[in-house]
Design a protein that fits this description.
Blueprint: H1 2-10, H2 16-23, H3 27-40, E1 60-68, H4 77-84, E2 89-94, E3 101-107, H5 110-121, E4 127-134, E5 140-141, E6 144-145
Antiparallel strand pairs: 1-3, 1-4, 2-3, 5-6
């Protein structure tokens, strides 16, 4: 089962026949295992890795570090669950080190993200402090290179 999960994590577009050949199973067996993985919540969804710089979509991504005060008896789960409900929030992770929660947030512009942090995130009772880091360019996402051998025209000859 772990082999199937690893293959799907790398390429979820493979057919049942291709997956069967790679795992030594039957297509029907692969389909049953995938259905069981989805039902149990191991597989949570499927996404394409998109190089947004090559589209006309206005898009801004930021990493936000949060220091929070966890609620008694709830730990970090309550505040993390509240934050995860915001549409702008792509991911929430409990972190070790200098801050408690790491977020990935998207908006149409730097200003949109900054306003989200200032007006919706920072005012939450449990939030002690925030630090926002804007993503300027993505080179690799989900294990896939998004920028290859393109030459920077600003460089000298």
């Amino acid at each position: 089962m772990n082999q199937l999960i690893q293959i799907l994590a790398e390429n979820a577009r493979l057919t049942s026949e291709e997956l069967a050949a790679m795992t030594g199973d039957t297509p029907q067996g692969v389909e049953a295992k995938i259905a069981a993985l989805q039902e149990s919540g191991v597989i949570r969804g499927y996404k394409a890795v998109v190089d947004w710089d090559k589209t006309d979509r206005d898009f801004c991504t930021a990493r936000i570090e949060l220091k929070v005060t966890p609620k008694s008896g709830m730990g970090f789960d309550e505040i993390a669950g509240t934050i995860a409900q915001f549409d702008e929030v792509e991911s929430v992770e409990l972190m070790s080190g200098g801050y408690d929660l790491g977020l990935t947030v998207t908006g149409k512009s730097f200003k949109d993200v900054a306003m989200f942090v200032a007006q919706r995130l920072a005012p939450l009772d449990s939030v002690v402090s925030t630090a926002t880091h804007f993503v300027l360019k993505t080179y690799k996402q989900g294990g896939i290179l998004t920028h290859g051998t393109e030459k920077d025209e600003r460089e000298g000859a």
